[in-house]
Write a structure and sequence with these properties.
The protein is α/β, with parallel strands linked by helices. Helices cover 50% and strands 13% of the residues. It contains 19 helices and 14 strands. It binds adenosine-5'-triphosphate (ATP) and magnesium ion.
Length: 470
Amino acid sequence: MGRIAILVVDDEAVIREGLQRTLDGERFAVETCRSGHAAIELLQDKDYDLIITDLKMPGMNGIEVLKAVKGLQPDVPVIMITGYATVDTAVEAMKNGATDYISKPFTADQIMEKIDKSIEQRAVLVDDMYLRKEMSNHHGFDAFVGESREMQKVYRRILQVASSDSTVLITGESGTGKELVARAIHRSSSRREQPFVALDCSSLAENLLESELFGHVKGSFTGAIQTKMGLFRVADGGTLFLDEVANISPSTQSKLLRVLQERMITPIGGTQPIPINIHLVAASNRSLKVMVSEGTFREDLFFRLNIIPIDLPPLRERKGDIQLITRHFLQKYNSELGKQIRGIAPDAVAFLEEYPFPGNVRELENTIERAVVLAEGDIIHKADLELAEREVHEPATSGHVPTSSEELKEMKRHIRDKAVEDIEKAFVMGALERNNWNVTHAAEETGILRPNFQGMLKRLGISIKSQYAK
Ligand SMILES: Nc1ncnc2c1ncn2[C@@H]1O[C@H](COP(=O)(O)OP(=O)(O)OP(=O)(O)O)[C@@H](O)[C@H]1O
Ligand SMILES: [Mg+2]
């Protein structure tokens, strides 16, 4: 057995370094970080066997870290470090699923004992978790079709987050099934009997959006003829799905942030904050991370939303699912349209598997629906598939000449970025190929620290799993 991987989260260097010094060695491999946000980023990439987190930290506190762990790696024990051993905080920590707590100051022996106890308990928890998963599998995600490894990962995430209240951010290109995921989370959760409320944030102007979300008091502005409850309260006890969340204005962003921090809502024109209990699920087809770096989306709100990320891969990256999904829609439209198409010809399958599907599953669905309508025989042939002309996207340079200094600057930057990215990709792929796709070895060979190498892979969109699958 390898060493037990422990993550220590504490804003105080003394504690971090102390624990690292005492624990890191033959039995334990200790990593540390200084904030809740950093911890969540690490947890998204790597599995740990135990988390030790401080309760009181600026930004994101230990309870929030704990909740995120429950969403991301539910069977990992969490030990909470409390500064003031008040009964309250300890109780709250345990209520939220902490395995144990320890109050400062503590000795090496004391923490060791807690660690041993937590790890023993873990074996039981893993079984329990397995059972829960099995049970929820019987509920099934009937609506989902697809057995690719990428989708399996998505199903697993859905089940995990359904049993937590941590905020979920679903990203993926248009038509990849973001709304389907949001509904599946709700249906698999204990909130399933409560409302599922969806709002497309791009559909309303700023002030309307705010009163739709937060509600308003009668007479609080011109046009507020009646008191409005607001969707946060309509969804109370259930799930609120904020679609196209990238589209909300800076002012609404800060209001949303406040609601998420305080779990309280004050209607426009109201004075009394009202507590709310919702599971927030947000979706975006634009990368919020990029928007943060461009300064158009608040970073702190991004962190709040992105506690549990679910990224839906584009259809072209899970070609194995194309046939399954095609057959599913054939059946669906056969029965809806009263047709009896028996199947799809190999040339048509090959064509679908080659097509890049910029509109993803939705485009495939529309294509099949059209084909079912148009097909004259009982088999769909390539000629029945009318797909958009395949475009080769060569951005920036393709023949276009800039006409202003601004545009010239922008294009130069773009070309440089692209060239740098290309050479980085070639570099990383070369190292991976030479090392049999072993990231640790590839990182070692190139002299890059493993986490940094991993970061590069992520940034360049290179996924080791899909390389293996080929
Ligand atoms: N894995 C899947 N299996 C079956 N149907 C799917 C799957 N993924 C998506 N669909 C179907 O494709 C259509 C588009 O899905 P959905 O509306 O959830 O996409 P979206 O990501 O929200 O798109 P947009 O960004 O354009 O809003 C829906 O009809 C949905 O039922
Ligand atoms: Mg959608």
